[in-house]
Design brief:
With 201 residues, this protein is α+β, with helices and mostly antiparallel strands. It has one domain: Aminopeptidase. It is built from six helices and ten strands; from the N terminus they run βββαααβββαβαββαβ. The strands form two sheets. An eight-stranded mixed sheet has the order 2-3-4-5-6-7-9-8, sandwiched between helices. Strands 1-10 form a two-stranded antiparallel sheet. β6, α4 and β7 form a beta-alpha-beta unit. α1 packs across α3. The protein is globular and about 40 Å long. The C terminus is likely disordered.
Length: 201
């Protein structure tokens, strides 16, 4: 049985989604500026309710699944975004990660703090070999975030995807576990931080 423990950092808590999170998720995911680089054109309350309902049954580190976590600002106990971890069936030792942060909470380093918690979880506790992320090449803020937390830009694919009525280009970012360990050591950071991670019982 998998016992999930929330992931804590100085200002944030990453936790499993709850049914009562649907309204907050809909509020920021329905914004045009949020949808611009996401896979949806519009986002309804029904979409948000479906997301949280489906997540109830997800067991972390299950091949083929997406685990979606709520990003909670600890001081206000407010849900300010969500982040996802995909466990590809064809690559059991790799994970894909991504996040959506409400525009009202951007520009404060919270995205960086979220990504650092995710890396400690997937490369530390879960002992995965590689974490990767794909961003729209026009999403410069996401590209800067990936580089800031230590990802390598492995590829720049040119007009490889038909996206929202036009051909789009993408960046592929990745980090190996040993690279993450080296980065943590050079910065004097703990590989565990102050998080309590999920554990198998």
């Amino acid at each position: 049985m998998y016992i999930w423990n929330d992931l804590h950092s100085p200002r944030l808590c990453l936790r499993r989604l709850r049914l009562e999170d649907a309204t907050a998720i809909w509020t920021y995911r329905s914004l045009p500026e949020v949808a611009r680089y996401q896979g949806w054109d519009s986002y309804t309350m029904e979409d948000a309710e479906r997301l949280v309902t489906e997540q109830v049954e997800v067991v972390p580190d299950t091949l083929g699944s997406w685990l979606q976590l709520g990003i909670i600002e600890r001081e206000s106990e407010t849900l300010i975004g969500d982040c996802g971890i995909h466990f590809p069936s064809e690559h059991p030792q790799q994970v894909m990660i991504g996040m959506t942060l409400s525009p009202t909470h951007q520009g404060r380093g919270l995205a960086t703090e979220t990504m650092e918690s995710l890396l400690r979880y997937v490369l530390g506790r879960l002992n995965k070999h590689r974490a990767f992320a794909i961003t729209d090449a026009d999403n410069h803020a996401s590209a800067r975030l990936m580089e800031r937390v230590g990802f390598r830009k492995e590829a720049h694919t040119i007009e490889n995807v038909w996206f929202k009525g036009a051909w789009g280009s993408e960046f592929l970012f990745a980090m190996l576990r040993r690279e993450w360990q080296t980065n943590c050591a050079s910065l004097g950071q703990s590989l565990r931080g102050n998080e309590n991670m999920g554990a198998r019982n």
